[in-house]
Amino acid sequence: MKKAPVILTITGSDSMGGSGVQADIKTISLLGGYPVSAITSITMQNTLGIQEFYDLPAAIVAGQIEAIIDDLEPQVFKIGMVRNPEVLETIVFSLKHYKPVHTVYTPVVVSSRGDILMSDDMVAKVRKHLLPECSLVTVKRDAASFMLGHPVETVEDGVKAAEELIGKGCGAVLIQGFATPTATLTDVLLRKGEHEPAYFASPSATDFNVHGAGSNLSSAIAAYLGQGLDIRDAIVCAKTFINQQVAYACDLKGRSSELYNQLINEISAHHKTNNDVRFYADSLNVSSRYLAQVTKRIAGKAPKTLIDEYLIKAIEIQLSTTGKTVQEVAYEFGFRSQAHFAKFFKKMKGVTPSEYRKQNVNIKS
Length: 365
Prior knowledge:
Blueprint: E1 6-13, H1 20-30, E2 34-46, E3 49-55, H2 58-72, E4 76-79, H3 85-98, E5 102-105, H4 120-130, E6 136-140, H5 141-148, H6 155-166, E7 172-179, E8 185-191, E9 198-202, H7 205-208, H8 213-226, H9 231-248, H10 256-270, H11 277-284, H12 288-299, H13 303-321, H14 326-332, H15 338-349, H16 353-359
Parallel strand pairs: 1-2, 1-4, 4-5, 5-6, 6-7
Antiparallel strand pairs: 2-3, 7-8, 8-9
Helix pairs in contact: 1-8, 2-3, 3-4, 5-6, 8-9, 10-11, 10-12, 14-15
């Protein structure tokens, strides 16, 4: 029975499983490889994006890599998220010392939602120290722009960018995601010593933007390199595999829209008695942090802003359409005193409740 090629992935953990070590393990396994891993960072993320990172200490990353190399001797490395200079130094040392047959690097510079995930200083260190150790760098067009410090927009830009990256020392560069007049995307491959690039088409711009698409492609390339294919053939096979997977996949959707509507309903029911974000988060059985992410994503506002805006509109109706005194309105909406009420109202509207009432004469007798 043929032995499965051992592929070492060195990258971050994605709690959603769409990219990172979880996705690498799945892809490599599906293609008949034996995935082993060294985790560099732990992310806290969901369908709204990455909220926080915990970068593992360099000594822990080094220990993971050494344990795998000493025992299983992987001949193909796939490298993804590297955010810490000391961790980068550890990885480069391992590559120089062990010299795997292939090292595929996919810089995790920009998230699928446009968040910058690597500092300028780290990008400079990667260019100088990591790229020369890589047999193939696969990078999205926008990430290539960050890596090189200038826009990479057209296919022609992609060829020049690939030449520039090869000039940093890597053996080959695949830059992904150039739009064409048809409903396809074009990827550009250039190998050291070759003057003519190769071009690959992807079926749809939508497929390319799915969370983890670039990472999954590089994992598939690493798996095919482990089977003995050369770089170009590995890319062809990997792209075919990924395109087939996309046909069956659906991008994971969270509950944010539903939760936002539930929040508005809760505010409608409780705005007279509660203006605390924690109360609404608890009633919806979510964290205050997640609730804030949802309202920012959908409305561009914090939950407290939504609560206060709903409250002030309800107060305005009372002041302009009823004969209740300002004090009665204050107590009806849960304010501890008329002064407290007046301070809140002036902050929101720029005038006192009495001044607002004079400006909006529609009071029922």
